[in-house]
Every structure is written in C-alpha cells, then in structure tokens.
Amino acid sequence: MLRKLVYSSTAIVPSTQANSIQVMKMCNALRRFNFDVTLLAGTFPGKKNIDVFDYYGIENKFSIIRKVTGSHRGSTFLLSLRYYPMLKKLAASSQDILFYGRDVLALYILAQAGREVIYETHETIKKGPRSWAEKKLIKSQNLSKIVFISEELRKAYEEKYGVLLADKKIIVAADAADVPPNFSDSFSLNGDFDFNACYVGGFYKGRGVELILQIASGMPEVGFHLFGGADDQICRVREKSSSNVFFYGYIIPAQTYKVRNAADVLLMPYQKEVMVAQNASETSRWMSPIKLFEYMSGKKPIISSDNRVLQEVLKHKRNCLLCESDNVKQWIQAIKSIKEDKVLYTNIGQAAYNDFIDNYTWDRRGKHILFES
C-alpha cells in the first residue's frame, strides 16, 4: 500500500499564478515517488470543471480537494480555516500520513495535534495570523524539516528567527521544471523575423515588460513576443510598443514549452523590486522563479537580469548572459551577441539545459527534500 501524503496549500487551482504551477508540479513529482498524494487547494467559482491535469500538463493523476474561494483581502486566511475540520480529523486518524506544504496555518494545526510536518516557504511573513502561526510552528518539535527556495531566503529566516532555527533540519531547494515533451512542437510566432526574443510570465510590477519595450524599439530587426498578462495590462503597454512587439496573452502551463521551442532567445528582465500577483509581496531578494528553470529546460540561450539571488543558479557567459536590470544598451548588446555568435548561442543554451537536468527537475527536487536530507 502506498504511503499517504497530504500537501496543504492555499494555491488557486487552476489559475495564472506561479504558485499553482509549483504545487501541482511538486505533487506530480511526489506521486512519481509512489506516494498516495492528496492536494488541498482553492479554486475560483466556475473553475471546478476544468481538467487541471491537462491544464498543467501533468501525467500522474492524484487526489485534489478544492474549496471555492475568492481573491479579496483575507481570502487566503479564510481558505485555511475552511480546511480546519478536515485537518483535525486527519491528525486524529491512525493512518501513516506525511504532511507537507506551504499553508503555514494548516501545518501549525497539524503540528499542534502531534503530527510531524514538512514546511516549505517562499517568502518571509511579516505580520498577521500567518506570521504568528509560523513562529509557533518553528518552535514546535513536530516540524521535521523546513524548506527554503534559495540561500537568500534561508539567510532572511536566520536573521528573523535566529536560535529558533538552530536545531531544525534546513533544506535549500530551488524551484524546478519538467523535461519538455519534445523540442519540435513550436508555437507560431507573429511577424516574419529571422530572430525572435520571447518572454513568458506576468506583467506585474518589476517583471521587466517595460524594459523589453525599450529594447525592442532599439532593435527593429528582431521580433519580440510577450506571453502573459491580463487584458487590461496588455492594453496599457501595447500603446507604448513598437511594431516588432507582439502580445499573445496568457498561455496555459501545458503549452509554454512550445513558446520556448519557437524562441531564439529567452528574456528574464527582472527589476530591482519584483512584485507577485495583486502586489501582495515583494520577492526580489529571495525569489526562485519557475520561469528560470522552464527556460533552462528549453535548450535556448537565456538573458537575465543580474539579481543576486538568480546568480545562485545563473553564471554569466556559461549558462546565460547577465545584464544590469535597467541598462537598455547592455541588453541590446547581449541580444546582438547571441544573434551573431552561433557558438555562444549553442553553448550557453546547452549548458543551461545540462544544469537543469542535473539539478533542477521536479524529480530531483523531490528526492533532495524527502530522501537526501
């Protein structure tokens, strides 16, 4: 009989948010390790009938329990509370269950009930009930492991909690990606350009969309293709764009590999301040964007901003080119270098892919967290 694993999250499934990709892909990988996985998540009204396994490109079906929630302030807290009766029942059962997740309130409840838990965190929690629950959880003897997505995040937690973390099993595990289904299926790009730069991701503050528009205006010979953004966000930036910039809107996670296959270069222009959805938090110091590892999986050259935390993975002129986040001329020169130097083009794309295969697949991540620490 497979051991049961319950993954507690407040991610909205399906949604356009990266945390929903992260929890679905992690559960998929955990299923491959022969766990009987159940994901606890939220969903928006009217979305329950969407096949989320097709939406995220996931081959291993696992159990998902989704409670309807909203996007208003406090909805995440209320979603956690709605799972309280179920969690209390699971905690009191005699089943051998591994409790894992990112919902700190849920994990606190389980730890208080005497269950061992693994807590994964992607940002510091500054205030409110989640901050209170996190401190209680970190003090608990039932917290078996705490997982950070970057060394910078680990340092931030050590600054915050100090000696409370001294006796905890700490794991640093960057985010990850799946190996693409193939490298041949390709998205049909607009325009008729010999060289195409692609961006896949949000249009939130700090993601660098405005920088791409500035780069594009200085490189009329290159096509720039932006995948992502809500309709209103696209409308705001479209009027500032030149004729070689094309907007495609959001593309479901299962199909993004086709964009990478179509690209000649992949852009990751994070700015000095990077916001998540609804400007809920700023993550530039410790982020580990899934986009980075999905880009690496595509065997295409990557140009990225030189944010310190990204350099835990990226090395200039080895597996990418790094540019100052606000230096338009430097970005233009980097794209020209890749366009004109076929050896550079091939070498950094292949090096990124090799690093991805060795270190940043979801299977590699799951194995590191569960079995190597």
CATH superfamily grouping of the largest domain: Glycogen Phosphorylase B
CATH top-level class of the largest domain? Alpha Beta
Count of domain modules: 2
Rg over CA atoms, rounded to whole Å, is 21 Å
Shape: globular
Order of the strands making up the biggest sheet: 3-2-1-4-5-6-7
Nearest-integer average pLDDT: 94
Q: Spans of 5+ residues with little confidence (pLDDT < 50)?
A: none
Give the helix level as a range of percent.
25-40%
Q: Give me the strand/helix succession.
A: EHEHEHHEHEHEHEEHEHEHEHEEHHH
Key features of this structure:
2 domains; 373 residues; Rossmann fold; 19% strand; alpha/beta
Overview of the molecule:
By secondary structure, this protein is an alpha/beta fold. The protein has helices at residues 18-32, 52-56, 75-82, 84-92, 104-112, 129-139, 151-161, 209-217, 231-238, 256-262, 290-296, 328-340, 342-359, 362-371, and strands at residues 3-12, 35-43, 63-68, 97-101, 117-121, 143-148, 170-172, 196-200, 223-227, 245-249, 265-268, 302-305, 321-323. The strands form two sheets. It has a seven-stranded parallel beta sheet with strand order 3-2-1-4-5-6-7, with helices on both faces. Strands 10-9-8-11-12-13 form a six-stranded parallel beta sheet, sandwiched between helices. The longest helix is centred in the last third of the chain and has 18 residues, at 342-359. The chain is globular, with a radius of gyration of 21 Å. The mean pLDDT is 94.
